[in-house]
Structures are given as structure tokens and as C-alpha cells.
Specification:
heterotrimer; A alpha/beta (360); B alpha/beta (262); C alpha+beta (90); A: 360 residues; alpha/beta; Rossmann fold; 2 domains; eight-stranded mixed beta sheet; five-stranded mixed beta sheet; 14 strands; 36% helix; globular; C: 90 residues; alpha+beta; Alpha-Beta Plaits; two-stranded antiparallel ribbon; 3 helices; 4 strands; 21% helix; 4Fe4S_Fe_S_CS (chain C); 4Fe-4S dicluster domain-containing protein (chain C); oxidoreductase activity (chain C); 4Fe4S_Fe-S-bd (chain C)
Amino acid sequence: MQGNDACAEGAIAAGCRFFAGYPITPSSEVAEQMARKLPKVGGTFIQMEDEIASMAAIIGGAWTGVRSMTATSGPGFSLMMENIGYAAFTETPCVIINIQRGGPSTGQPTMAAQGDMLQARFGSHGDYSVIALAPSTVQELFDLTVKGFNLADRFRVPAFLMSDEIIGHLRERVEFPDEVECIPPKPIREGMLPFEPEDDLVPGFTPFGKGHRVHVTGLTHNEKGYPASTDPDLHEKLVMRLVEKVERARHEIADYDIVNPDAEIVFISYGAPTRAVRQAFLDAPEKSYGHLNLRIVWPFPEDLLKKFKNARVFLVPEMNLGQIAREIQRHVDQPVIPIPRLGGELHIPAYLLKCAEEQE
Amino acid sequence: MSVEDWYRVDRLPHIFCAGCGNGTIINCTLEAVESLGWKIDETIFVSGIGCSSRAPGYISTDSLHTTHGRALPFATGVKMAKPNFNVVVFTGDGDLSAIGGNHFIHACRRNIDITVICMNNQIYGMTGGQGSPCTPKGALSTTTPYGMDENPFDLCELATAAGANYVARWTSYHVKELNQAITFGLQKPGLSFIEVLVQCPTNYGRRNKLRDVQSMISAMKDHALLKEKRDRLLAEGKPIPDGMFVVGTLTDRNRPALGVKQ
Amino acid sequence: MKLVIDDTRCKGCNLCVMVCPYHIFQEGRTSNRRGIFVPELDRPERCTNCRLQPLYQRRLCGVCQMICPDQAISWLHEAPFEPHKVVIEY
């Protein structure tokens, strides 16, 4: 099955019943599958006039209490930034599939890249925090789509599935579980205000039509949801909470694979380059390099880096000019060497081995 | 239930300037909603950014105050995900026709079952009186200090051409007619677009020799030309006086609509 | 029915002065403690709605209330007239 189709299957399995999208290579297959499948399960598909509207529509859909999703690629992702900031600020749970392609601008529509990783985290103006997942196989694309919905609902944030053209268009064997775990958002507790945080800093979710008469605004709002944009303390408290609610759970929700934690030379990868690293390990079984594969990139779980006690150097193959390598360097004293690969093709395993050998 | 129940009384008085007509339009809308017996928990008010878009914050339903120009896609999302909700959009001329122009024509094309009430004050009021796509030719604003030299949009013709089912234009002076038009628009399946010309004495009138509310209202009253009268003038081959705008029900048709309540 | 202006909401725009067919509203001459010249009522018992709403069981006229941008104008129910016993003290 193709990656994008698996993504759509995952979304439907996770209970997604509203999809608004705009065609863009290489993510169009997600929209096509959703258009075909959603009406059969009682959901709604709508093709909007642009990505700004798609993102707006899924936020509207999410506030009616329906699991909502959109899918796009780089240029559309840039357009969505405005409303992604809105979703983060109004704590709207929604899922955005980004099948990344080469950029900047129109770039390489049919080739892969991972150039949107920092945009996913910092793209909209102001401070906020989001969750970004990175699948490296078609099976993971299915599983992480489901997981993305659950995390988005749990933390009330937009969750990004930062896949890329390689995984999106890859055909691989996928096993669908009989039943996937769907955890609905925590409902609002009796007597609580719509934006009043509980102990985990996440307010209970009260969709429209439930009698709570919630006012959702992109202005700085108090716990009732009313605008209070000139109160400096309130704004600081609100933004701190929005960042903190995700960031402080980063080790708890971390999803990763570790190979050979005693190694001196450690590869760190996420998404498609993980496949190249795995192949390199298969090609050179005599070498004992370490490998950390991240399935959740944002919030960045920096404690995982400490698990490599003997690490001397970290090699980070990425399909960009070292966006996550920069994040890793913030947390470790050892040298972090990015292995960038632009142009749309995956790293060649032999080249990765050569890079590692240079460090021996 | 009374109209007062539809207000978030704890938030009044609202932030609109003295003499601003937005409050009048909220009155007319809520009066219409109330007369139809709609339930507060089944009605959603959506808005974008601007003076007009502050309105849902004073209405006690679930409400969505969104990003600039994007009220219609948000409303589309709400309506498509849950067609049982009654969705009303408050928007302004800058919000709807400038940054949200594309969303506007596509919402009209889809003919989605929402009611759009555009408070057209012919200026960007909240940001301090910059020219908007509906600023009349020659009018002064902070960004057109020598007079507007672009042609304004006729939003009603735009909505009609794009496919809306019901299009009407009134002013904030014609409260009774406006109330009837909104009542009709709310019941109409498909997109109902009601443009309301509204006085902005603070940022429009002050720079255009209409400093007080009374003179702005009189100007609107004097320049409003009933559609029936315009049709009569046209039939008789008489010229239509300069500077007049047409008020009344401009379009009323039954094209297939999207997202209608089952 | 009794016509009242809520002076905590009124912003003194005088639109009611403009629209009332009976000229019940007169421009205010003194400012209240918020510095707003709230219109004064000139013989409000002349208002059609005050007089006839109980009879027709619906809103009559009501233009002032609908045009008031600040939701300040409303009608209050008054207790129906009850004959009082007048005690005359000598």
C-alpha cells in the first residue's frame, strides 16, 4: 500500500470524520483517499479554495467536536501558518499531514525533503509549542497518524505528521490492527471555565453546542475565553502555559528506537533518512555504531541523547541543512555533525558509513 | 426568552465608539434570531478581524473570533462538520472583500447554508481609518490623503455573480427593513448575504465632512435608493441620480445549496 | 410599560433623538459621572409601545431600541395600577 493511502486509512481508523484540503503534490493522494472513503463512514470531505481556508475549515470542524485533519506539502504548509498559530493559541486539537517536498518556494514538487522541520515548530508568529511526528515506514505513517490524533486531543494542540515524498509515495506492506486506540479529549469538568487549565495545564475540551457557550478568540483571552489583550501578566501566563503543557511532557510522550547505546559514534535520524541508516547498519554488520530514531521530533526529547553514555560524536543525516542537528547541538557538548542531503534523493548508505568511518 | 438573553451582559458596554452602527446591526440580528425561535446552543456566530468582528464576543452563543478575512472558511468548517448548527458570520468590508475576497466568492459559489452579515463602514476602522476596497471614490482616509482613486467594490453584485441565494443591502438607519431582511436570510437555504452600510463617525465621517452621527445617518438616508424605485426609473428611461446606492432585496433565488440542515 | 435608558451602557450618540417619531428623547444637557450626555426623556408616557404593547401583545414601533447601538434602551414592566386607599391626615 502507498504511504499516503495508509495515512488516510489511519485517519479514518482514528475516527477522523472531517477533512478539508487543497490538492498539492505530493500529498494529493491523502485528499483523494479521504474524498473516496469519508462519505462511506459518515464523514465530510470538502475541497477548499486554498490551504489557508483548509486549515481554517478544520479548526471550525474541530470545534464542533469532530476529529479533523488536512494534508499538504511545503508551499501549502507556509500558507497554513497563520491559522496554525490560531489553532495553537485557541488550543484546537487538529492534525496536519505535511508530505514534505523540496523547497524553498515551489521547489521540487515530486522530490522529498525535510526542510519544514523548524517551520513546523517556529513557523507562526509568537511563542507556542506543537507536536511533530516523523514516520520512516508506511506502517509508521498509519500508526503515527492515529497517534497524532490522540496526542492532539490530549494536549489540545495542532499535531503535525512530518512525512516526506519518499514515505508518502512508497509502497510497502501494512498491517491494519483490528482496532486502534482512540482516546477522546478530556471533557470539561463541572464548574470549570472553558480555558481554565487542570493539573496537566490542559483545559478540558468543550466543543460547540454543549451548552458551555464558549467564546473562541485569537486575541489573548482569560480563562472564560473573553479577550483581555492588554493585560501583560495574563498574556505571559497564557503563553507560558501553552508552551509548558507540551514541553514538560516531552520525555513522557517520546517515541524512539535506540540501537547500540554504548557506541561512540551515534547516528540520529527521523523520517526517511532512518531507512538509509538502517540499510547502512545492515551493510556493515561488523561496525558498532549507535542509532537513535525519533518518531516524535517536537517537542524534542533531549534526555534521550544522554542514553548514549560513551558517545563521542553525533552524526545527523537529514534531508535539509541540519535543522534538527542544530537543536541537538543545543543539548550536548560532543560535536554534532550534520549530514545534509538536498535534491530529493535519500542518503546513500555507503556514504553514511564513510562519514562514520572518518570519525573513528 | 428575550433578546437580552442573547447578549453576554457581563461584557457590555462594548468597545464600539459612540455613534458606531455595529451595535444596531447586532440588535437587528439578535431580534431576528430571537423571533425565529432559534436555540442559543444550536447557533454559532463566526467572525474575522476588525470592528465588526468583535460582535460575536458580545453574543452569548458559542462563538468563533478568527483570523483576518478567514471567517467564511471557519464557518464552512463548522457548517460542514455539523450541518445542524445555525451559522451566522459577522464580517466587515475589509475583512470580507480585501483579505477574504477569495473565501467570499468561493463561499457564494458553494452556496453553503450560512448567513453572512457584512457591516460595511467603508473604511478600516479598527486600525485607524485606512482606505478599504469599499471606500468610495474621492473619499479621504489615512492611506488615501488625496482622495481614493480606485473604484470601490459592489459587494452585492459580487455575491450575486458568485452564486449566493439571497442578497440584500440596507443601512443601519433602516432598522425595520434590515431586521426583515436578516430574518428572511436566516431562513433561506444557501448563502444569504446581507450588506449593511454603517456609519463610522470616528474614522470615516471625521475625515469626510460628516463629523457627527446625525449627518452620517442623514447622508445614508438621502443616498439610499430603493430597488423598486431604481427599477421604475430604469423602466421609464430616467437617469439615476449620482452617488446613490441601491437598497432592498437584490437577489432571491433557489439554487442548490450545500450543508443544509437535514 | 415604562421606557428607560440604561446610563451605564449609553454612550450619548443621540441616535434615539433622531429616530423617535414623538421626539421623546431630547439631547442630554448634563453629563453623568462617566462624562456622557445621556438623552433626557420628555413625557415618555407618550411612547406608543409604552401605551399599547399590553393591548396588542407585541412590540410596536421600537425603532429607538433597535437602533440604539449600545443596547441601552428598554421597556420595563410596570405593576398594573392598583387603587390606593388615601388616608388624609388632619
